[in-house]
Amino acid sequence: MQQPGAVTRADAYRTQTHSIAQTAVQNIFENAMTEICSLSLTQAAQALQKKELSAVDAVTACLARMDATEPRIAAMLTVDREGALAAAAALDKEGPNPAKPLWGVPVTVKDALSTKGLRTTAGSRILENYTPFYDAFAVQQLREAGAVILGKNNMDEFAMGSTTENSSYQTTRNPRDVNRVPGGSSGGSAASVTAGQCFASLGTDTGGSIRQPASLCGCVGLKPTYGRVSRYGVIAYGSSLDQVGPLTRSVEDCARVLGVIAGHDQRDGTCAPRPVDDYVTALNSKPLKGARLGIPKEFFGEGLAPEVRAVCQNAMSIAQAQGAELVEVSLPHTDAAIATYYIIAMAEASSNLARFDGVRYGRRAADIKNLEDLYVRSRTEGFGQEVKRRIMLGAYVLSSGYYDAYYRKAAQVRRLIRDEYLAALDKCDALWAPVSPVPAWNVGSLTADPLQMYLMDAYTLSLNLAGLPGLSMPVGVGAESGLPVGMQLFGKAFAEGELLSLGHALEQVLPGVGAPAL
């Protein structure tokens, strides 16, 4: 006789069968979601327009990918799950719109860009409770093009850092090797794109903060010409250096996003009133055969890791075999670029961050005694160590008696650096150089040595001083580390179309780096 509560063999069989069925369904779901996330932005956009994929399915796939990868890489500071699904459902109800080139495409945004109704912290405790009431221009352009904002990416506090270890909230890891840094300050954006959490992300580049993480993570990153994309709604670090740009998994995807976010904006006095080129159509306009690529000799000197040098030389050999002409050029003031950049950037940071005082903007300290106590404690508690260091150095170089010796001299050298770039570009279609002197390094290995960390930007920051465009893309994998190596193309002002075309041609013949095994 069956005892009360006893489980029969039939009951056990049904339970086991149900469990197996659940597992099978879950595996099918996960495989389907992974397959969607492995598409390029271009493929996803085309599938969405053809109704082969719904906006809700695309968003659901990316959110599932975030759930699977975030515990290991920590690329996101804020995920707007409900808002993204609601926006996707509204798009599906309206139906695909060919006039919206990113219709239904899920993207992420660096936390330095304002997003209406969505927390924006710039990676700092002083803004931990800040929710903007407006979108940055670039974010507004994404929304108008039909993109769905999934959330905000982790970053070095106020974009001050090269590893995303200076975030006040968490340390982002490289999807290629979670023991390595993803680069910075747009490390969360690069990691999110590389891990398949989104189809594109927006970053900001002040001294290489798009190009360097793109190189270390093995994706594509573009710093547009200064003034090509509006800085309206960007929480400023260095106002004469900052520029918004895309991070994607291919050059074609990069062209599509740039075509959306570029354009004149009257709210930004530094934004150029120029028409936006059709960057996608121009992708095949500049073949490698006959192209003149300048190789700056200063970028191949001491300090370049042997495995990075080997990958770059192999890429250059492939380009030559395809008919490109490599021309050695010189940028003599490259060795002065680091000092010049940090004087100017820190001076501008000191000025820009003065507004975060607990009165006008930012977190206010509790139990204050007087006005001076309010200022001191709010800023002391709200800012991290690296931000404080740069504010102090910036205030010093702008102070009476030191302005001429430091800031004015740096501004003069900056002009020399720009003139050298322009002279070299008069001889070539573009310049081609490494992005980082080394592949991604171990988390924590350089945090105690700020000067060594600053040297990691040696190949990127001079372009920001010149205000010219730069495209970073993977060109192979280091033999010793097994990690991606990137090279960057430098072009004349507003020549993004030519850079993207050359990058697209190179992408067809250079070794790929594949997807990370996350």
Features:
single chain, alpha/beta, eleven-stranded mixed sheet, 16 helices
Quick structural summary:
This protein is α/β, with parallel strands linked by helices and 518 residues long. Helix content is 41%, strand content 11%. An eleven-stranded mixed β-sheet has the order 1-3-2-4-6-5-10-11-9-7-8, sandwiched between helices.
Tell me what the structure shows.
By secondary structure, this protein is an alpha/beta fold. The protein is 41% helix and 11% strand. The chain has 16 helices and eleven strands. The protein has an eleven-stranded mixed beta sheet with strand order 1-3-2-4-6-5-10-11-9-7-8, with helices on both faces. The longest helix is centred in the first third of the chain and has 29 residues, at 9-37. The protein is globular, with a radius of gyration of 24 Å.
- Percent of residues in beta strands: 5-15%
Q: Helix and strand succession?
A: HHHEHEHEHEHEEHEHEHHHHEHHEEH
Helix content: 40-55%
Largest sheet: 11 strands, mixed
Helix and strand composition category:
alpha/beta
Number of helices: 16
How many strand segments? 11
How are the strands ordered across the major sheet?
A: 1-3-2-4-6-5-10-11-9-7-8
Rg = 24 Å
Low-confidence stretches: none
Mean pLDDT: 94
Q: Please report the distance between the alpha carbons of the first and last residues.
A: 52 Å
| Net shape | globular
SSE inventory with pairings:
Layout: H1 9-37, H2 41-49, H3 55-73, E1 76-79, H4 81-94, E2 106-110, H5 137-144, E3 148-153, H6 187-194, E4 201-204, H7 211-217, E5 220-223, E6 244-248, H8 251-261, E7 292-296, H9 306-321, E8 325-329, H10 337-352, H11 371-382, H12 385-398, H13 403-425, E9 430-434, H14 450-455, H15 461-466, E10 470-477, E11 484-490, H16 496-509
Parallel strand pairs: 2-3, 2-4, 7-8, 7-9
Antiparallel strand pairs: 1-3, 4-6, 5-6, 5-10, 9-11, 10-11
Helix pairs in contact: 1-3, 3-4, 8-16, 10-12, 10-13
